Amino acid sequence: MREKNIPPLLSNGEISEKLDIPLQKLEEAYCKGIIKYYKEHGVKALQFRKSLKHIESGTMVTLGDEMEVIRGFPKIRRTLMLYPALEKHFQDEIAVEEKMNGYNVRIAQVDGHIVAFTRGGYICPYTSRKATEILDLDQFFQDHPKMVICGEMVGTLNPYVSHCYPEIGKLGFRIFDLREKLTNTPLPIIAKRKLLLDYGLEPVRLLGIFPIKEAPEKIMEIVRELGVNDREGVVMKDPQMQLEPLKYTSSQAQDSELEYALSYPFDLAQAFLFSRIIREGFQAYEMGESSDELRERALRMGESIIYPMLNTIHRVKEGEVAAEDLIIEVDSEEEAQEFIRHLRDLKVMATLAEFKDGKAVIRRIHQSTTDKINNYLQGGLY
Fold it and tell me: CB under 8 Å, gap of 24 or more: what pairs does 110-117 form?
């Protein structure tokens, strides 16, 4: 299948060979929109919007001076029950790292420039700029140009997921994986942490490495403590990184996500609601909670659902728009507008509400919630 709009580079066989995917499959994927041509922020690339065979969604094939493949970050599956899942999935030991509440970023060197890719494979100009301000990356990429830094951007001035970590403050970056560009092969846990230490780069917390028989009880204790301290959860890994990791989150983190989603019920709730409720049910079962603990969980979950939705209904009734304000620190209004253009590329409706003293207030508008609440308040049928 060949069409005039297929980039010549896609049809010459080099990418097919690098990715080990037949040329016809690549061309079909391009015609179906699975692969898109991407040209933003000085980078030309082929962007994988969905996974294709063994190539992950979010993979970027950069088409600069040197053609490079930057693989997408693999999806991490979740366990609902620690005891049976860990024994079934892992072998001898389990390394437990903290799962932080932010957004997934891959940082790589492309044609001599350090850029940050979001989960979907988009270059975020704000994140690229902040990553190079927060982290000293030049020597690392000079020594390891074929490596990708995978981590979490976190903090209160995080424009995607704002969360307060006392040790981080406004904005910080914590690294959870180092992977090879083309193969996506991750470094083992200890080797990764040693290499990061050599370059003064901060990893996520390693909360322990436990024998398989002890791991479920230890992890349960860790997650309880994380939840009490308003932290998200854990990622459980094979220390050699030869098996796929698993994730597990605290009840408090799940309810916080419900609270956020139900603040904008007609934009976000459908994608959030069912999975979080299922997690709460299985976690409550496995933890064997007392009647008082179970009641506390049920109240917390119920309050996370009803109160934010009710608050939004009141706000829309008073003539407000269902929106959230995100604050970012930028050097100019143009940098703020550049970030808004990036959000719009992601199909996010956003405007610049205010720019003053290096801080930009980005207003993200949830139009469907606004319109539907107004409709129902005026007698529309559901």
Answer: 110/43, 110/62, 110/64, 110/68, 110/70, 111/43, 111/62, 111/64, 111/65, 111/66, 113/42, 113/43, 114/138, 114/141, 115/41, 115/43, 117/58, 117/60, 117/70
Domain boundaries, the chain: 8-70, 77-246, 252-312, 323-365
Residue 208, SS3? strand
Distance, in Å, from the CA atom of 24 to the CA atom of 29, rounded to the nearest integer, reads: 9
Tell me the two tokens of residue 11: 């049809």
Dist. CA 329–CA 336, nearest whole Å: 9
Q: To 10 degrees, the CA torsion angle through 56, 82, 155, 230?
A: 160
77-246 sits in which CATH class? Answer: alpha beta
Q: What is the pLDDT of residues 171-190, one digit of tens each?
A: 999 999 999 999 999 999 99
Q: Tell me which DSSP letter residue 248 carries.
A: E
* pLDDT (0 to 100) of residue 8: 75
Pairing outcome for strands 103-110 and 233-237: unpaired
Fold (CATH) for 8-70: Nuclear Transport Factor 2; Chain: A, (3.10.450)
Q: What residues of the chain score a pLDDT lower than 70?
A: 1-4
Q: How many helices (H) and strands (E) does the chain have?
A: 13, 16
Task: Give pLDDT tens digits for 321-348.
Answer: 999 999 999 999 999 999 999 999 889 9
Q: Which residue in the block uniquely carries the two structure tokens 């005026």? A: 378
pLDDT confidence of residue 1:
43
Q: List the end-to-end C-alpha distance of the chain, in Å, as a whole number.
A: 45
Dist CA 6 CA 194 (whole Å): 44
Look up residue 369 and give its two tokens.
Answer: 């919630």
Tell how strand 233-237 and strand 93-99 pair up. antiparallel
Angstrom distance (rounded) from CA 45 to CA 62: 4
Distance from the Cα of residue 95 to its chain's centroid: 21
User: What is the per-residue pLDDT for 17?
Assistant: 92
Q: Could you tell me which residues come within 8 angstroms of residue 158 by beta carbon, excluding any fewer than 6 positions away?
A: 102, 103, 171
> Are 274 and 281 within 8 A, CB to CB?
no
Residue 342: in which H helix or E strand, if any? helix 333-345
